[in-house]
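Quick one:
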Amino acid sequence: MPLALLALAIGAFGIGTTEFVIMGVLPQVAGEFGVSVPAAGWLVSGYALGVVIGAPVLTVLGTKVSRKKMLLLLMGVFVVGNALSAAAPTFALMLAGRVVASFAHGAFFGIGSVVAAGLVAPAKKASAISLMFMGLTVANVIGVPGGTYVGQAFGWRVTFGVVTLLGVVGFLGVALLVPEQGKPEAAKIRTEFAAFRSAQVWLAMAMTVLGFGGVFAAITYIAPMMTEVAGYSAGAVSWLLVLFGVGMFLGNLLGGKFADKALMPALIVTLAALGITLLLFTVTAHSQALSAITLPVIGGLGFATVPPLQKWILDHASAAPTLASAANIGAFNLGNALAAWLGGVVIAAGLGYTAPNWVGALLAGSALLLAFLAAFLDHRSKTTETTAPAAPVAAQV
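Output:
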C-alpha cells in the first residue's frame, strides 16, 4: 500500500471524527453555552449545510490548482475550522468553526478519490479508494467514541483540540507523501454539469437526502435519548457509539456486496428495513438492552444504502461523474441537516427525545417510495430502448 494512501486515510479519519463526534458531546456543548439541546443541534445542521455548499463549489475551484495543493488547502481549512471550534467563546463562533471545517469535507473525498486511484495500477483503483474511505468508517468505530469519551472526561474543547491535531497530521502526511499529479483539465468540469439533466441522478440524490436523513434524525440526539430515556450514564454513550460505528462499518461492506449483485432490490429492502427499525426504536429506546441491539442495526442499514446510491449516481452520470458524485456527498449532508433540524423541532414541541425516531422512519419511508419510482422509470426506459424500431435502411437502386 502506498504511504500516500495512509495520509489520505488519516485526513478522512479526522474529517469523519469531527463530523460525527459532536453528537456524543452535544449536551455538554449546550450546557456550556447555555442553549437548549435542539438549538445545539444546529452544530450538526450547520456542518451538513456547509458540506452541501462546499462540495460542488470547491470541487470546481479545485480545477485551478494541482490536486495535491488543493488537498493541502482543504486540510488547512479543516484545521482552522476545528481550532476555532475548540477555542470558541460563544455559540455563534462555535457554529462558525463547524461551518468552516465542513467546507473541506466533500471536496476532500471527491479529489482524494481521484488521487488515490492514480496511486495504484488500474486493477487496484477501487481498493485504493476504499482504503481512503476506510478512514471515515474507522472514525465511527474509534474516533467518535474516543472523542466522546475524551469530551466527557476532559471537556469537549479537548476533543476538538485533538481533532485539530489530527488535521495537522493529515496536512503533513499529504505534504510529505502524496505526489504531484497535475491539475485536472478545466474543460472536463464543464461537461460535468450534463449529468444533472438525468432525472435518475436527481432521484438518487433525493433518496440520499431522505434515507440518510432518516438515520440522522435519531442519531443526532442519541446522547440525550440514551441518558434521559434509556437510563444510561453519560459515560456509556461512548461505547454505544462504538456499537453504532461497528454497524456502519459492516453495513457499508455488505451494502456494497449486495448492490453489486442486485442494486435496486438491495436498496429497496434496506430502506424498508431501515424505516421499520427506526419506528421500532421509539419503543426499544426505553430499554437499555434493546437500545444496544437497535443502534448497530440502524447504523448498518443506514450505511448499507451508501454503496447502491453512489453506484446508481455513477451509472446514470457515467459520462460526467465527478461533480455528480461530489453533489451526492452534499446530499448526504443535506439529509443530516434536514434530519437534525426536524428532530430538534419535534423535541422542542415537547414530544420527547424519542420523537426524532418516528421522524426518521417517515424520511426513510419517503426514500423507499422514491426508490420504487426510480426502479419503475429505469425499467420503462430499458423497455423502450429494447422495443424501439431500428432505423430504416436506405433502399438500394
